[in-house]
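step: validate -> pass
step: tokenize input -> pass
step: predict -> running
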Amino acid sequence: MTWDWGAVRDFMPHFWDGLLVTLQALALGSLISFAVGLVWALLMRAPTRWVRWPVGIVTEFIRDTPLLVQLFFLFYVLPEWGLAFSALTTGVVAIGLHYSTYTMQVYRAGIEAVPAGQWEAATALSLPPLRTWSAVILPQALRRVVPALGNYVIAMLKDTPMLMVITVLDMLGEARLFAQQHFQFTEPLTVIGVAFVLISYPASLLLRALERRLVR
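step: predict -> pass
step: emit ->
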């Protein structure tokens, strides 16, 4: 077996298309997971169990169900109920919702780590609940959880190839299509593997540096 640089050259336009789709899925999925995860975390602190219990059941179900099953369900079952979305939209929603159940736990840990004195000070100042959360609790909690949230972004990046199963042409999807059309698998799949390393490893180093800076 010999390395074919011509195949690499021919594959690169497809690679850039796939990289764009991968980054789009990652960015939008991350935003959904961060926003929905925060909502889950706040609802789990509701004073009534009639809010906490349903949220706990839903998030536990999502977390305990494989992402691959969720992708198939959203892409193939929802259209039968009249809810049809593009493959990329379906993939973004699936990844975002799946990881929101993990970011929820990160937020909960950050909120619980806020010193009790901060809650007592907000109560002593007679701050309304919205003001207490927005000005006192969440700023301190978010500062603590940024590195952990970043780790889940990297995890989401490594799960984006699953979108290929619902016809999304991300990096792996483009590599698989190119390989099948040209009967050359080594070059495109190697390029994809290297690309994931070049994205994931610097991101992990950045997160470590950010964590050291935030804990000072």
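step: describe -> The first helix runs from residue 5 to 43.
step: cleanup -> pass
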